[in-house]
Amino acid sequence: MRLLQVLVPGEKRDDALRVLEDEGFDYVRTSECSDGTDAELVTFPVPTQAVDHVLTSLREVGIEDEFIIVSSIETARTPRIEELEDRFVSGQEEDDSISREEIRTKALNMTPGRVTYYVMTLLSAVVATAGLLLDSPAIVVGSMVIAPQVSAALTGTVGLVLNDRQMFGDGVLSLVRGLFVAIVGAFAFAWVIRTGAIVPVTIDITAITQVQNRISPGLLALVVGICAGAAGAFGLATAIPVSLVGVMIAVALIPAASAVGIGLAWGEIGVALGAFVLLAVNATSILLAGLAVFWYLGYRPMGWEPGSLRANVSSDRTATLAIMFVVGIVVLGGAGMVLTQHVAFQNAVNDEVRTVLAEDSYAELELTEVRTEFEDGGVVSDETEVTVVVRRPADTAYPALTSDLERALEERVDHPLSVIVEFTERTRAPAAVGAGD
């Protein structure tokens, strides 16, 4: 429920009150002449879903946004409030969307102070780094709970859709700086962990499941970023709380940023590059998905005229759209091509490994897992590592498997590969001995 206070000039009083009467709003009028002008402060309660509707109706009769206050209230009892609730909350005009003015304020109010934002980002990155190295999903989830990136991501998206360039710039810069702090914090923490021998220096970080999930991005990882941005926009634009949505956005960002730091600390540039591609794609996907959802919900820049796109594309809007277009092309175009190449590489490797293991000589083997190092197209290394984990009968050797896999995979992907085969033993439980034996 919202309480609206609107300053209505005397010459437009009758038109404004007629709008409220026609829409069925109960109101209170207070004379206001503190600045020597003839005006009234009209106060009336409305369902949250009706705020944008009534403000639009008032603008159509000439009421400007010079003095409008929208505040939250727990409840209201007026003669026609139940009719309004039936109409806007549970009737044909039901809509969870909040007003354009309210969504802007709501996004800005989510933004913590600069010190708080960066400290919480640093803490979440440290916790995520520990969780990744410990291979603990619970700790990684805990890092997402305290990450504040939802405020920057949604502030930037709201600024873009409302054509508030200052808000858009602040949000995007805050997001980029926060992720930079997360990467640096994760690197510093991982470097201390490694040089202090808290974990073995020779540990293969690519074999850690939680790290592997962030350094070898696939199309499903892209889906996470898109859904996170869409969920964040829906949460902010409706009466739904956004606290849980913040965790979803952090899922797509903080672990990937921490994986970049871990890769740098271990000197694994390919690991860092793979995680950075995932981070860049997810961050851009969050912004663009949020923009699409806000647009779908009907949010537009102030003064937007429906129907003609050409009439709405002013010079400042063109500049904003151009910036976003260039960023989208650079990030989604470049990183998307790398991501697509890696996904194609993964699919080719998986298919060829299954083909080799389908041969009669390997009929007793059971494929458990295939891990592929991030395929960077030769930017860091000309050779890509592939790890194949298979289950074999106890005490049975397969000395030719590694060379067979390496030869088949190199023919398939047409560049050098380093193949590692890890065996796990398959044992049979001893047969039960009968009582009479």
Automatic annotation (TrEMBL):
It comes from the Archaea. Coiled coil: none annotated. Pfam families: DUF389. Keywords: Membrane, Transmembrane, Transmembrane helix. The chain crosses the membrane at residues 115-134, 140-162, 174-193, 219-237, 244-266, 272-297, 318-339. PANTHER family: AT15442P-RELATED (PTHR20992). This is TIGR00341 family protein. It comes from Natrialba aegyptia DSM 13077. The lineage of its organism: Archaea, Methanobacteriati, Methanobacteriota, Stenosarchaea group, Halobacteria.
